[in-house]
Amino acid sequence: MTCSLCGNSEFEIVSERDAKSGGDLLVGMCVRCGLVQQTNIPTELDLSFYYSHSYREDYKGTLVPKPKHIFRSANAAVDRLDFLAGAGVEAGRLLDIGSGSGEFVYLANRSGFEAKGIEPNRGYVEYSSSEYECEYSCGFLDAARGEYDVVTAFHVLEHLPDPVRAFEKLHDLLSRKGVLIVEVPWLEAKDASPHNIFFGAHVYYFTADTLKACASQFFSIANIDTTVNLRAVFKPRPESVEFQIPAAESVEQVKRRLREKGWLEYVTAGGGAIRPLQKLQRAVRESAVRGMSGKEITDMVYETRSSDSEARGFVH
Description:
alpha/beta, Rossmann fold, 7-stranded mixed sheet, 4-stranded antiparallel sheet, about 20% strand, globular
């Protein structure tokens, strides 16, 4: 195998187990650039079939979203709109890659964007099109067409077979002064259980430096945030440049963080000690939306969160 970023063939194995299934899963770290990836990258055809047919059922247990999933997605959508507003991105033609059950696209339209989404799972596309009456199409990143002021990819890149090629396609979708917003799980985060990090559905595991490096040929970085996952704001380069491979110090940092991950860090610095209470509180909140439609849930979350923001002096 070779590194998808720098082409190196020397890796250190960091995990041998799939946290979801308990089966075998070899994950390695490139010793040259620090990118962490599965050692056996699935083919594009295999990934296309999996995400269009099985992924939602494997990870959500359903072919259409349950009310609790919509409640979570709507809250995440408001968080993401807040992040966009904080980055000065509040209007324009927007394409959401991997739009899921559609809450972000719907709320982006409510917030002043001309938004549409593309999603590989047909069941979720049919659900979101019917529930929110916005424009959603069924397909993968390669099927996206048009030119946009804003492209968003929330928890998409870790699932794709080639992140560098993905950034090239994302670059092609943006206008010259456009903005790309990316969110992926952060490998260095302290709030993930040490037995709940590496999954068969996640082909890549990013640090801030490896994410920036994968994008560097086609994008410059405008902002990086690790408050919630790893979020980045990218600006398209007018012309492609040479890759900016992470320095040796960055690679050592990845090694150090992987060594430090463990139950002590998770329970203390990662908040694992209070996680059972948080799950109980979330279950109580989610029980209140049973029987509500997706649009009712999403509107309620948006309006409640907007009222809270206004009370704090912030308006979407």
